[in-house]
Inverse folding.
């Protein structure tokens, strides 16, 4: 007579990355307690006692070697490497300025149980203080992605450990856009990404100034251009459209109108195309969002041009931080 065995529960560990997050990091780690087996905190040169606070809360603290250029991808890979011996089934990646919803792990594991080709499950990331500024509101809207099969995730997601390790983890040279690039390689290897209808994290963007929003958009433009240079020729045409859109609206078109207007002042009237585009975008996304979607093309173009100029010079762009 044989005795049926009960499948063991999947093991879930967490990798948290951060630098000088202070109380936000403490809240993040506390939100993970009881939801995951182990917590690895990768610290990127904090000077505010974050590493000590994480250790007191029971996290395994991994100080990132700051002698090399920092990227979030490097930090996440350091966390993955630390967990290699414990071999978790899943890794929950969380940024140190986020807190995890109490029901998230259960909801995400249920999705994984229904599809053994799922590599990544993500949910709703929300801004903790959307009313603090228009920039926080825009970030909250940005994270409200469609539910169902997805092409990519953000920095917070539950991932199946084995396929992430098999494709080599995150690309460490990227200063931004490392999650979509990883998701692309996972999809190329036959895995899938899913966005489910579940609360996942609360994020504290802390964007209260126009300059912060601008820098974040510059970073996005750099990510678009670098992603397109890596995978733009493939069938996914990774970020080719986003790069082209930024360069046309944020650089080529205004410079062309400026040159034409200097030759024939009446041609400055062509600038009307910008308010018309705002109206078009506003009908789809709302007035404020439509305005900022168009405005973003200028810093995105700046970021894309930074990438191309640095590539010509043989230089590497450092981190573009908005906090």
């Amino acid at each position: 007579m044989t005795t049926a065995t009960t499948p063991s529960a999947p093991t879930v560990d967490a990798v948290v990355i951060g630098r000088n997050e202070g109380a936000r990091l403490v809240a993040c780690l506390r939100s993970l307690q009881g939801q995951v087996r182990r917590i690895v905190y990768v610290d990127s040169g904090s000077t505010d006692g974050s590493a000590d606070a994480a250790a007191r809360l029971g996290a395994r603290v991994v100080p990132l070697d700051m002698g090399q250029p920092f990227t979030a991808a490097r930090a996440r890979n350091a966390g993955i490497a630390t967990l290699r011996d414990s071999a978790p089934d899943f890794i929950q990646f969380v940024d140190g300025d986020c807190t995890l919803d109490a029901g998230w792990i259960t909801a995400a594991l249920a999705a994984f149980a229904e599809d053994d080709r799922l590599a990544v499950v993500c949910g709703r990331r929300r801004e903790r203080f959307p009313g603090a500024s228009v920039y926080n509101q825009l970030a909250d809207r940005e994270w409200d992605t469609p539910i169902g099969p997805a092409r990519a995730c953000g920095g917070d997601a539950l991932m199946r450990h084995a396929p992430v390790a098999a494709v080599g983890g995150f690309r460490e040279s990227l200063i931004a856009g490392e999650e979509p690039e990883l998701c692309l390689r996972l999809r190329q290897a036959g895995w899938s990404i899913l966005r489910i209808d579940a609360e996942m994290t609360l994020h504290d963007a802390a964007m209260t100034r126009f300059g912060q929003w601008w820098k974040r958009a510059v970073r996005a433009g750099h990510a678009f251009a670098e992603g397109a240079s890596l995978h733009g020729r493939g069938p996914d045409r990774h970020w080719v459209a986003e790069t082209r859109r930024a360069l046309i609206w944020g650089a080529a078109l205004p410079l062309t109108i400026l040159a034409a207007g200097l030759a024939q002042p009446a041609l400055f009237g062509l600038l009307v195309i910008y308010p018309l585009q705002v109206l078009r975008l506003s009908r789809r996304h709302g007035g404020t969002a439509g305005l900022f979607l168009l405005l973003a093309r200028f810093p995105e173009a700046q970021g894309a041009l930074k990438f191309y100029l640095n590539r010509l010079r043989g230089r590497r762009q450092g981190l573009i931080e908005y906090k």
